[in-house]
Amino acid sequence: MLNEQEYMKKWIALNQKMAEEHFTWGTAELEDDYEQYMSFHLYKMGRKQWNDIQEATKKIGHIVNKAYHEIFSSETLKSRLGIPAEAWDTLSILSRYFSYFSRLDLVVNHGDIKLIEVNSDTPTGYLETSTANRIICEDQGYSSPNHLESAIFKAWRKIEYEYQITSQDTVYFTSYGWHDEDRETVLFNMRNSGLARTRYIPLEEIIVSETGIYDGDGERIDYLYRLYPLEYLPDDKDPNGKNIGNLLLDHIANGRVKIINPPSAFMMQSKAVMGIIWELASQEGIFTEAEKNDIQQYFLPTFFSNEPFRGLNLPYVEKPIFGREGGGVVIFDRMRKVVDEDPEHWYSEWPKIYQEYKEMPDYTLDTWTGPYTGKLLVGSFLIGGEPSGLFLRVGEKITGNLSMFCGITVTED
């Protein structure tokens, strides 16, 4: 084990190497200090467990995609998603696959793998899983098992086909320009897209007019990859107070701009989907028996009320349907007393779902300040419908934006 001075020397060297390849957020900035985010600790996962997670990821993706098409065809099911009224018309745009860029958050306890949520709309963690993980592995003489770059390239070939993008079309990529993580995540996707013509445009530079959306040169934007949640748009106004967010939603709904991820990804980002899938699994004629078995194996009981947990006598979690980074999450014990609660109330206005609580396993990392034992969350990327890599984070019972990520490699059992 390295002493504190040796640890910091190595951390600084690795962080600099990562920064040269666009991963620049190895620390998390607080009000008056910095917290460690990048840990060069390397988790050595056995081949069987790796393969089990890949299989689970593929099967979960299939279930969610089938549920998407079921929800898409039912106005009743759509109405339960909690989608803002201003965005409702965007849900009429059918997509072949619910999301081309998504990440599943999994609790993995040996052979037990449970899905706690699907980040289908605007997932992050790409550079951690690709660039940073490769550098950590190489430093310790291992190879990275993740392959996001090739998966992104293949996903864009599917997108080109579905969206009918030609070599003459420019695909714009956007995020907040001032936000390093979002910007570099988007640029990573753009660099690996293999598209003939691309351009990055900061979100704040997009011009939204009555006829469509444009860049600063007056060029119309027909195709837009965005790392920006659609549920934020109803509140977006220009400096004069005009609601440009709703105007953009109207352009999306009417096909004046085609967005990637598609609106289906926003639709399936609602955690209400987990409750709907659990309900559909008890009905006949929707899922096959094999699919129902997969739901029992990989999904957690999820409801629109906490009442079922009276009879189940199980701890459970209350989640806002559009919460992110653990925002608004509350954990209850068997007696419905609060065990842990996220202090962020940003998402408190959203409707809630109630899901069986599955505790993440403990895992210990070496850090700046010595060993830290936290809860291990496994993020599994599903890109273009294919498992593409694992993103490990270690934090508190509620995984927030101050959890640390660590590297992963695969060893033979």
Description:
With 413 residues, the chain is an alpha+beta fold. It has a domain at 39-270 and 362-411. It is built from 11 helices and 20 strands. The chain has helices at 4-19, 47-72, 75-78, 126-139, 148-163, 180-191, 244-253, 263-269, 272-280, 289-298, 308-312; strands at residues 27-29, 34-36, 38-46, 101-109, 112-119, 171-175, 198-202, 207-208, 213-214, 223-226, 258-260, 302-303, 316-320, 330-332, 338-341, 352-356, 362-367, 370-383, 386-395, 404-411. Strands 3, 4, 5, 17, 18, 19 and 20 form a 7-stranded mixed sheet that branches. The protein has a 5-stranded antiparallel sheet with strand order 12-16-13-14-15. It has a 4-stranded parallel sheet with strand order 7-6-10-11, with helices on one face. Helix 7 (244-253) links the parallel strand 10 (223-226) and strand 11 (258-260). The protein is globular, with a radius of gyration of 21 Å. The model has no long low-confidence stretch (mean pLDDT 93).
Question: How are the secondary structure elements laid out?
Answer:
Elements: H1 4-19, E1 27-29, E2 34-36, E3 38-46, H2 47-72, H3 75-78, E4 101-109, E5 112-119, H4 126-139, H5 148-163, E6 171-175, H6 180-191, E7 198-202, E8 207-208, E9 213-214, E10 223-226, H7 244-253, E11 258-260, H8 263-269, H9 272-280, H10 289-298, E12 302-303, H11 308-312, E13 316-320, E14 330-332, E15 338-341, E16 352-356, E17 362-367, E18 370-383, E19 386-395, E20 404-411
Parallel strand pairs: 3-20, 6-7, 6-10, 10-11
Antiparallel strand pairs: 1-2, 4-5, 4-18, 8-9, 12-16, 13-14, 13-16, 14-15, 17-18, 18-19, 19-20
Helix pairs in contact: 2-10
